[in-house]
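Supplementary Methods S3. Complex input for the 3-methyl-2-oxobutanoic acid-bound model.
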Amino acid sequence: MSIHGKAKRITTQVLQEMKNNGEKIAMLTAYDYSMARIVDAAGVDIILVGDSASNVMAGHETTLPITLDHMIYHAQGVVRAAKKALVVVDLPFGTYQGNSKQALNSSIRIMKESGAHAVKLEGGAEVRESIERILTAGIPVMGHLGLTPQSIYKFGTYTVRAKEAAEAEALRSDAAMLEEIGCFSLVLEKVPAGLATEVSKSIGIPTVGIGAGGGCDGQVLVLHDMLGLTLDFSPQFLRRYLDMGEQMNSAISQYVADVRSRDFPNESEQY
Ligand code: KIV
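Predicted complex, serialized as structure tokens:
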């Protein structure tokens, strides 16, 4: 039986065992109870309450506006639903950068008020102190390197990162540092597949890629993207598993037509 199959609950130790045994890790985002229940029951290892909620749930252009209170609200529903998956919550923009005490307080709020199992934050050397402080409280931390959407106004675009030698070298060194200080895993977003493979082989902790090729130890997608709910977003790395937006549109159009034609409700659908 697979390590996922044997585990009652996915923990950071189980994820490490999966990497050690070459078993790939499946991670998806979720932001609410109903969706998280389906994601968990389908066998996903890690549910990420991503700050992509800012885009897909609230309709913002970037991840910057979402607040700690919003993230905790989303996480509470997901935690109630997750019976097996490890629940990781993004620290939102402005709640951890440059102030390690604030980073610790934000993480404690997430853990206490939502019941989540770990936090994720973006960046390398520049957030080292914050990560170390969070880890002192026994809170597991997932790193996030490559394209870090909270820095979109620094990058200017959402294109592939670390194509140039200097940025690739910085990423290698940040990945090694994140492992050394005690992160349990790290996300590699939109970096060349060759670099992601090299980093995944060179560090001991599991990497989870998005747009980073098949050499990572696991993969993550935004749930709404892979279900076909965000039709205006079609990057090369995205595989759509469902046309849920179109299916919902036709179901809802049918409902509207049935109400207007007095077909709904019928005799058996009333008291
Ligand atoms: O917020 C998010 O959904 C993420 C994933 C893209 C990794 O950070």
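Residues 149 and 271 are 52 Å apart (CA to CA). Residues 29, 48, 50-52, 90, 187, 189, 210, 220, 222 surround 3-methyl-2-oxobutanoic acid (CB under 6 Å).
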